[in-house]
Amino acid sequence: MSENESLIFEVNVILFRKQLIMKKLLLIALILSTFVSCKNETETLKTITVDYPKTNKIVVTDTIFGEAVEDPYRWLEDDRSKETESWVKSQNEATFGYLDNIPYRKELKERLTKLWNYEKIGSPFKEGDYTYFYKNDGLQNQYVIYRYKTSEDPNTAEVFLDPNTFKEDGTISLGGASFSKDGKTLAYAISEGGSDWRKILVMNTETKEIVEDTLVDVKFSGMSWYKNEGFYYSSYDKPKGSELSAKTDQHKLYYHKLGTKQSEDLLIFGGTPEQKHRYIGGGVTEDDRYLVISASISTSGNKLFIKDLSQPNSQLITVLNHTDSDSNIIENVGSKLYIATNLDAPNKKIITVDASNPTPENWVDFIPETKNVLSPSTAGSSFFAHYMVDAVSKVLQYDYDGKLIREVELPGVGSASGFGAKKEDKELYYSFTNYVTPGSIYKYDIDKGTSELYKKPSIDFNPEAYESKQVFYTSKDGTKVPMIITYKKGLKLNGKNPTILYGYGGFNISLTPSFSIANAVWMEQGGVYAVPNLRGGGEYGKAWHDAGTKLQKQNVFDDFIAAAEYLISEHYTSSDYLAIRGGSNGGLLVGATMTQRPDLMKVALPAVGVLDMLRYHTFTAGAGWAYDYGTAEDSKEMFYYLKGYSPVHNVKKGVEYPATMVTTGDHDDRVVPAHSFKFAAELQSKQEGNNPTLIRIETDAGHGAGTPVSKTIDQYADIFGFTLYNMGYEVLPTKIEEKIKG
């Protein structure tokens, strides 16, 4: 090579290297511009203003233990007034005007719709000559009941009852179904607009004809058949005033005999001053021998009675005359009763006792208490003891002598449910799921102890691309709290991952791993989904529940705050990318957390929340929640404690609260929408800065049960769109990822 050629070669190499550097710089610039675009969009979002409707203040003052408490939005409690109706309409106009400007809201809805559109089948069950199952073809608003002759091919299954025909928009849903002992008659309940009030219809299962007048004004009720003659159900007297908000305080148990009018139904229990209970349930044992009655003053603790139906005019026999425990009869063999109880056993156990003398001093342990919480069931010739081990399922099978047969081998780590069947059955069906595994159904041979896959959904979601990790973090007082964090594999712990922290923490309810189509879409967008098992729940038994009640309720909020701080400290996310979400009691959790620590999160999503803690007990059956909350009337100490965290009473002027979208339903008669109305009004009145404070009010919808699929998809598209938009995303995170890779 000559000197000139060598020089030309070196120059070309230098130019080539410069080109590479320029390409790298351009790529870096592209990446930076993408994120700058997001940042600039965040800044733009902060300048967007919402034309909030004016909410009139008409101050009503209550004096509680000598202190005057002003309630400027009391008028919003009247769900029948034209003024409230107008307010709801104007708030929705403002909210949807905002949501309409989110550029990828339609994309989210399309993806939710596509992923939702797969066949979902429930576990089969036998009634009379038929095997029944629930199925949704994909986007049907309500599940349909199918059946086939048990002796024939399951592929011959036909539609038996289709709730989608009740009303075109799907807002009338099936609220429960119960077959007579011979399977020839069905009693089923319907809910209109999501209300807890039900109507009961009675159908001939052979002809599918309605055979009786409809029972009306039924609430918080099962339907339990005695032979083929009639069934027991529960209800309240219809309240004076609004049926959606007026107080319902005295539950009653009735017996309806087929062929008679509802006005002739026998009052079995309740209805007298000495028998005043807020929740009463009646169930007949499988052998038709006993009527079992549970009577409660609140959502925790019950009295227990039995009535021998084989003896005419038999009297009620008291099993428990106090509400110091949660106890129920799960089985009987003749007069031998099997009772699941947490009396002197916070994690529950099963005892046996003879029905002739069934009080606690005669109880004998059958399956003793363990360190894990027990939820038992029966099927065929066995008891199935379902335990929660750090919120994950473990199932043991016992015989009727209390001898351990085996541990059921589950398909993985997650939540198993459905270990129940009739005594004559040789097999049962159970479902299994976790945060990345869509629910599958397994067929279990009771004698052999073997499982086989029965139905696995075909869904456009790859579980192998995601992972769940359980961690234990430390709460404010040193308590260790478990949390499961789920996300796409390869997640970078850079503090910039959009994260939803979801919690509940109350009423002895446990949050165990389960798959959600909506959460799958969230995680597809690179989102993290985190669920802590807060105190107040049932994951570790009665002691864990009680540690989050009444004067210890702050523990629940502290646990949730500590979960958020853990996610931030471990760089899963940061305050700019964190949303907190919860519904009902979880709505209270979000409301209390965002008012106590508004700096901690970017977005707050309280749904159908209990938000006015001074008046919650004055609506519908709210007084029954006093075991968890206490009431402002209990004592001066309880009043000040409730007032100290009540979200409605702790919105302060001049504070910058996170971007908030309150959600509720206009037919919610469990947690009345006035809670959400007042909270939204307070936020809009006092919010500092430009973070939006919206309320999305679903029409013809209640507390959540029976909500049509179409409405559910719309809700999630709005929730995720609002969340990502206020985290600064101009386009969906997946689009940013595609742009970088491209």
Task: Quickly list its features.
periplasm, 4 domains, Peptidase_S9_cat, prolyl oligopeptidase, globular, Peptidase_S9A, single chain, disordered N terminus, Pept_S9A_N, 742 residues, alpha+beta
Mean pLDDT, all residues: 92
- What fold name goes in the CATH topology slot of the largest domain? Rossmann fold
Tell me the number of helical segments per DSSP (H or I, 4 or more residues long): 12
How far the N terminus sits from the C terminus, by CA atoms, comes to 40 Å
Strand content: 25-35%
Biggest β-sheet: count, sense, barrel?
A: 8 strands, mixed
Report Rg: 28 Å
* Beta strands, count: 40
Helical amount: 10-25%
Function: Cleaves peptide bonds on the C-terminal side of prolyl residues within peptides that are up to approximately 30 amino acids long. Has an absolute requirement for an X-Pro bond in the trans configuration immediately preceding the Pro-Y scissible bond.
Family: Belongs to the peptidase S9A family.
Main location: periplasm
Pfam family, one: Peptidase_S9_N
